[in-house]
């Protein structure tokens, strides 16, 4: 038993440490963008008007969940439309991008996933704001009549320096990865890789449905779990697309706090989940 525990811990630590240089480099870039350009992003989102879903989808791809929180605040203040909000939420990947960057063998998969998420975000934003606009209640559509100057998207936050923030974020996510690798290694040792593979294969058609629910958890843990399962070969392309499309990071938590209408919030969450799962199911047909 002690030998098995040591082997699990050794492999988990070895696999996790390999990711550290790539992970730190990714977070260094992310922190630079957030510290130097977050106000620019806010102005671009707020000034998008009827076509706000276009910059929303592109900016959402930037691996920083703060942008989804920003979009939620702007939507609650009627500065951006529902289409723009959903475009940002669907494009947001939270921790998935730096985690896949930290695994060079998955760079091609990262490009594919981001391409799919961008296409889904653009299509959803366009359809919500133009094609199906009349089917959506006026109160839910959002708008571009509010003023972004009245919205405090940063809420008096105190920031560390770029280097310190990147190091803190890297260590925080490294611990999640290490714990995940230990748990997965222990599961493989106790149950067997073939048994796990058979279970996931049996739940194949339902993976996008289940992963979409996990993605709705407004915490970076959900994107870490989904991405690590995909990187380990335990989650299909359809599953990872569904989970990362519904995974809007802290954006959902900010929306629930900033937008006081519970029915509107429930509709938005259901719409986000439905679009994310549908995208995952479509990907499952072609993967």
Describe the structure.
This protein has 287 residues and is mainly α. It is built from 14 helices and no strands. It is globular, with a radius of gyration of 19 Å. The protein starts with a helix and ends with a helix. 40% of the residues are buried. About 5% of the residues have low confidence.
* Distance, first to last CA: 39 Å
Tell me, briefly, the overall form. Answer: globular
Total count of helical runs of at least 4 residues: 14
Helices and strands, in order, run as HHHHHHHHHHHHHH
> Helix content range of the residues, please?
over 70%
Low-confidence stretches: 145-157
* Count of DSSP strands: 0
Alpha-beta content class? mainly alpha
Mean pLDDT: 79
Identify the quaternary structure here. Answer: single chain
The fraction of residues assigned to DSSP E strands is under 5%
- Main sheet, how many strands, which sense, barrel? none
Calculate Rg over CA atoms: 19 Å
Features:
mainly alpha; 287 residues; 14 helices
Write a concise synopsis of the structure shown:
This protein is an all-alpha fold and 287 residues long. It has helices spanning 2-17, 20-46, 53-60, 66-76, 82-91, 96-101, 107-131, 162-191, 193-202, 207-215, 220-231, 237-246, 251-258, 262-286. Helix 2 crosses helix 8, helix 4 (66-76) packs antiparallel against helix 5 and helix 5 (82-91) runs antiparallel to helix 7 (107-131).
